[in-house]
Amino acid sequence: MSLITRFLNRRFYYFTIILLIKSIVARDVVFGNGFSWLTLLTELPFFFAVFCLIEYFAGKRKMYYYLIVNLMFTVLYFSILMYYKYYGIIVTTDALSQADKVTQVGESTYSLMDPYYMLIFLDIIVIAVVLLLPKFRKARQSADLRPRKSKLWMAAFALSITVCLVNVLPNRASMNENKQAEEMGLLDYEVYNLVDKMMEEETLTPMSEITQAKINELKGITEPTTPKYFGAAKGKNVIILQMESYQDFLIGLKVGGVEITPNMNKLVQETAHYKNFYTMVGQGTTSDAEYVVNTSLYVPKHKAATDVNVDKALPSLPKVMKANGYATATFHTNAVDFWNRRELYSAIGWDKFYDQAFYGDEDHVAFGASDEVLYKKTLPELVKMDQADKPFYSMVISMSAHHPYNIPTSKYRIELPAEFKDDSLVTRYLKAQNYADYALGQFIDGLKSSGLWDDSIVLMYGDHQGLPLYSLDDDEKALMKEMLGTDYGHTEMFNIPLIMHVPGVTQPSEVDQVGGQVDILPTVANLVGASLANQIHFGEDLLNQSSELIPMRHFLPSGSVIDNENLFVPGIEYKDGTNHKVTDGTLTTSGGVTEDEYNRALELLHLSDSYVQQLPHK
């Protein structure tokens, strides 16, 4: 009997070993417990169940079914690896439906890939060759590929399904998707997630019960009858600058005596710098930041807002500003159809958008024209809007410092110490943000020389994290610790700056107050004297409230929440969750987010989902 015939006859065992190895690789990357008894108990039964069916029913095409199953499971494990490296959670069918985006952000995706990941496809190529090449026909014909109509196969199938159910059923209540996947098994979790999605009938809170008073009660705030600074900047322009992948630790950072963001360092000396401000995006990352800031609503669970919410007539900051006599426009060098922005912009009511058609592909960096081109071409348009007969609200979205931060070497403006290797994600990030800071400095100078700076509210914030904790290797984590003086964790990763310049209102200051992107809309509305009495919003005015409750989604497990002092991440349930101080990210066992805050944060997310789903179509 040839070696190939022996392999074909013992296919059940060999394919089990092959897929077990792949599951060990995936679990080791995601959970850090590659080979363990838990791996055997949670991953093997799923393989057995599928293979028993193939053995029982399939005949001469049996090996092709094995190969197809192997390919499907391998692609799923590979997707889990890649998705986790950026998002820090387990990929779901919702995320897999966005596979078309991979081709458009290919460089960003490929940068997450360790070369050994590709080895999990090697066996498929080898087996396919054996099944297809004529020279192996005799070995294939010698193999026993008859259906195995034995009751033992059905008994083994039933036992495997039972073990899968035992893995799944006790863990359904866990809020933490990563813990669910670890305890259920990766394949069990994916099937459970798919079935649960198909059978789920979400009970929506009726519109009549979704009131601002209810939201404020859940957030633990009371809106003042006469808010401070209401209308203090009435008639002023509003310019919001969304900075790509910008994290707060960059401000004031020096590496080898070199300032990484010298222009921002100067800027915070003349503005209000909210240093405990947090990103609240989901799968849509940059487009989600646009959504949250302009609607004061939370992102949907494990979906991009631009894929599910943009068919609605969304209440928004552009609509509020237009109702108060403002012209509105948004500026982005990427194509407007990427992440379905055309529909987003229609839903939130921008008067006009500028995209790649306006900026062209001049001086290409990342996914479009460079930040230098963005600011150079945007400034004259803002000046034109300023010369019109009404004030304007504009949003400017930078993009050059986009993951994986492979800006042209001609854009490098700093040299870093030898330990910052050129191929390191941290090195590339710092150099890309240094270039973005250079371009930003030119824009700020342009705003000042044109007179716009003194006649405008200017807000700047990071859209989302730039250095995913899950993508960093040990050397990069050591570099981060050396730079920051503390371990790089969740609080540092999600901490973005908010820079606020309001003529006659804000003073140069470093503000400790906790806030999130959802708070920008009510803060701006208060400053320009726009009432939100008839508009639902889940954020709060940062100039009048100081008690925060920020539900986090997608990049952290469901149930994660930030309050004034801590970032809380649940375990299987609230009781085994962990608290991280917002000041330095250290774990704390005293105080922490209360179970009441945890439950209120979940209710806030549910109210936001219920509200959007019941809005009329645009």
UniProtKB/TrEMBL annotation:
The chain crosses the membrane at residues 12-31, 37-57, 64-84, 116-133, 153-170. It is found in: Cell membrane. Pathway: Cell wall biogenesis; lipoteichoic acid biosynthesis. Keywords: Cell membrane, Membrane, Transmembrane, Transmembrane helix. Residues 236-529 form the Sulfatase N-terminal domain. It comes from the Bacteria. Pfam families: Sulfatase. It is a multi-pass membrane protein. Its main location: membrane. Belongs to the LTA synthase family. PANTHER family: LIPOTEICHOIC ACID SYNTHASE, PHOSPHOGLYCEROL TRANSFERASE I. This is Sulfatase N-terminal domain-containing protein.
